[in-house]
Specification:
This protein is an all-alpha fold and about 300 residues long. About 55% of the residues lie in helices and about 0% in strands. The structure holds adenosine-5'-triphosphate (ATP).
Length: about 300
Amino acid sequence: MLTSDGATQTDHAAAVMDAFELFRKLGAGAKFDLKRFGQDAARFKVARSHVVEESSNVLSAIDYFGTGVTSKSQSSPVELDKDDGGDEEEEEEEEEGSESGDSGAGGKRKQRDEDLSKEKKRPKSDQVEAADGPLKDTERSGITWTSSLDRKIQNLPGDGKEKSSLKRMKQLHQEKVNRIRSRHRINVHGCDVPDPVSTFEELQSEYRLSPRVLQTLKDAGLTSPTPVQMQAIPLMMHGRELLACAPTGSGKTLAFCLPLLAQLQQPANLGFRAVVISPTRELANQIYSSVLQTDWCSSSSRILQPST
Ligand SMILES: Nc1ncnc2c1ncn2[C@@H]1O[C@H](COP(=O)(O)OP(=O)(O)OP(=O)(O)O)[C@@H](O)[C@H]1O
């Protein structure tokens, strides 16, 4: 860097390039009013079309088939404001199998959106499989698609009319779910979060929770789930990973113990089948007494202490 002027200039140019690149990346999620700030967008290369044009120039200069004809002369002009288009435009592009969405920051975002919507669409055929073997689906996509209403819509053989009325139903259902969540101050982050349950009985109808477990809950005086249980239990019944945060005494222990014990079903002489790790002995004791409260498998629960 200090050896010659040429090297210093090169470094300076590289630093300026880096700054431009950094700015472009930082602005990746932002939406610019390209009509109003067109000049600025062009200067900082945030306009996707510019990047697309650049890369397509490079690619189009290649004579892939050795015919002497490059695709440069054939390529159609790139639209400037694709990102500003509405959902319909995006859907159309998806149907056409767009090839232009893979360059530039906006392109990456769009590509991600497309991937996501394709992922969502894929279970249309996988839903039946999901009902038969949810683990296989999880292994493949990392997510088990959970919404039962989605499954109904996707499996429906009927015409577009029926599907659109079901879509409307789904929308109403989502509004209802949102109301429940906001009433109980449940905030969720993540993909395809299953609906919260308002009663323990719903766990029986939706997740085939054993009637014996329900009876045990009733006997223990637990009549309805607490907010953290309303959302955490369905998630865990789907075998999803969960990070829950709720005030002390809000029923977090049962929120993870119930699905865990429900999945174990009944005591079996198979060694350790589930491990709950807690940071303190006191908390381990608290969890243990909660498990004892749900006494359908208390006899097989143990507290293990680390050897020091
Ligand atoms: N659905 C419910 N209805 C009524 N009581 C409940 C319900 N769920 C749990 N409880 C009771 O609430 C009390 C506190 O629950 P719990 O210890 O699970 O809270 P926690 O959120 O885990 O607390 P901490 O943050 O201190 O660990 C327990 O006595 C438990 O039996």
